[in-house]
Amino acid sequence: MHKLAQLDQQFVWHPFTQMRDWLRREPIVIASGKGAVLRDVKGREFLDANSSIWTNLHGHQHPKINAAITRQLKKISHSSALGFANEPASLLAERLVKIAANGSRVADSNGHRTPKFNPKSKITNPKLEKVFFSDDGSTALEVALKLAYEFTRRTRGAKTKPRFLSLDGAYHGDTLGAVSLGHIILFHKAYGGMLFATDKIMSPYCYRCPFNRAKPERNDARKYRKCHWECVGLVEKKFAAQKKKNNDYAAFVFEPLMQGAAGMIPQPSGWLTQVTEIARANGALLIADEVMTGFGRSGVTCHVDDKAIASVSKNPASAKLFATQRVGITPDFLCVAKGLTGGYLPMAATLTTQKVFNAFLGEYEEFKTFFHGHSFTGNQLGSAASLASLDLLATKASVLQRARLQKQLHNELQSLWALPHVGDIRQVGLVAGIELVKNWRTREPFALRERAGIRVCEAMARQGVLTRPVGNVIVLMPPYCTTPVQLQKMVSALSEAVESILPRK
Ligand SMILES: *Cc1c(COP(=O)(O)O)cnc(C)c1O
Fold first, then answer.
1. Measured from the CB, is residue 255 less than 6 Å from ligand 1?
2. Which of 56, 258, 307, 335 sits most deeply, having the most CB atoms within 10 A of its CB?
3. Does a structural domain hold residue 74?
4. Mean pLDDT, range 236-244, rounded to an integer
5. Treating both helix axes as pointing N-terminal to C-terminal, what angle do 484-501 and 452-462 enclose, rounded to 10 degrees?
6. What's this model's pTM, rounded to 2 decimal places?
7. Atom 8, ligand 1: residue with shortest CA distance
């Protein structure tokens, strides 16, 4: 065994990992990376098919991001945001506010915008104008949660007990506030005693929806579903019931367009606009968790064909970077992390409105201050990397590359329908989840203890393709620099792994 692998096994405790299994075999020790390729200490090469757990955007060792970090390194790596401003964090905050506004309508005199999806709607979009920096997705959510909580108490009265609503299967991180918002029993049950109560609504998981009367087809379940939007009806009921208790929800928290750790669960077209409109009409703030979907992950346009590619190449600035923008919604809190720095450094941000900001203004002795912060808030290296990543995202080359990759991903995935153990293939932009089942005709799932997803990913690793499953869902989330040949290899490795691990009967 390699010396470093030995040290790892002796000293390191890995996240979300059954360490007994981990200790049974020699781990892959990553030594370097370039583009979509990771290289280990033994010189073996692997494709980074989940962008290093959904973080990487432009590939490893991108010269522009490397240069930005190096330039900043020569000035200073970190100084505190407690008491001091700094150059890259100031520039980054300005830039984030600017890109968050892309595609929204011009604000009226109250700073409100009408959502695009429904011009008749009386509900208006706010404008995101303030940025609170932190370190991870979890902390970005924690900040939104605390701000929404306190904002609600300050506007509705100090006796209010703000209550939050989120989606079934939701994952918003592992700190306790974020876990309270989450609804994954397997991860969260053990900590129940430490959490505060939140409510959940059903997630629009068309493939396994009890209201979907359609028989399984060899197609994305969103496309062939037969229902009457019962899920949206339930959301309406939930809000009405809460109103009866005289305690409207303080906020609705959601991952837009696709829930990640819930199992790559995409939302059928129209769901998000209806549900957020209901939430807004009931006075709830919107907290959008774009930790996974942000920075172009949700795709350049809904469906990419040659026409869409031609159109984005003419106007690259029209490509939206956030899933909420894709449907014309501006939330009251926008949480970003993973891809913010291009996936190079841990950094996160929570964007919010002037209105929320103002609720925390007062004389010092009123103690309206937002008493929250982290040692590395507004870190310079992270900010410099983020600015370089955002520069790249705005280039025509990147927009075109993303459009082509999105289209190719769609095309390559179609071959997987030939596998009887593939039940559903779900793609949103540059994210895909492939759900493995015992029998596609019945949708019968593999029991978790069969470790079907894990075994398939292990077989993919043997073929030089690295990803991690969510239960029985295999995730493909290629870095934006992935070449056509590399993408082909990711999908064929998946196909071969399924064939060898889950043989046809
Ligand atoms: C990963 C993730 C988080 C948590 O982010 P960390 O950086 O791991 O704390 C929160 N929300 C979503 C949607 C995520 O994908």
1. yes
2. 335
3. no
4. 97
5. 130
6. 0.96
7. 137
